[in-house]
Amino acid sequence: IFKFLGAISVDLGKDRIRPYLPTILTPLYRELNSNYAEQDPTLKNLSQEIIELLKKLVGLEAFSLAFSSVQKQANQKRAMRKKQRALQTVANPDIAARRKLKRHKNKAETRKRKIESLRPLHKAKRHRSHTLKDLAMVE
């Protein structure tokens, strides 16, 4: 998709690409700023190359305006999601408590995995659940 966006921008040219610049920059910006673990470095490099191409194509001033608007929009969305999450903890405390318990459980399991990888002879104790579902013989 990034190659397609680059090809379209070159094909449209300097004047016809300007209205579509924020739309094109949005996925490129998202890829550049993502910090998830399984990130593909080739995608990041490709998005950087296309951003440089767009910068040369439309000029630094127009590019900077579009890029800053995309940045601002992304930050607003992030702040909105954070605010929604905070409001949900107040509005639905049971859902928030469940989410918190799940997060703590995952953190504990991650810690145990890390201990096992660092010290292979040491086995971390696993939490045994005694619910009926866990005790049932399910195939």
UniProtKB/TrEMBL annotation:
Region annotation Disordered: where it falls in the sequence: 93-139
PANTHER family in alphabetical order: SMALL SUBUNIT PROCESSOME COMPONENT 20 HOMOLOG
Any single Gene Ontology cellular-component annotation: 90S preribosome
Gene: Utp20
Regions of compositional bias (Basic residues) in chain numbering: 98-130
The organism of origin for this protein: Tyrannus savana (Fork-tailed flycatcher)
Residue span, U3 small nucleolar RNA-associated protein 20 C-terminal domain: 1-116
Pfam families: UTP20_C (PF23099)
This protein's name: UTP20 protein
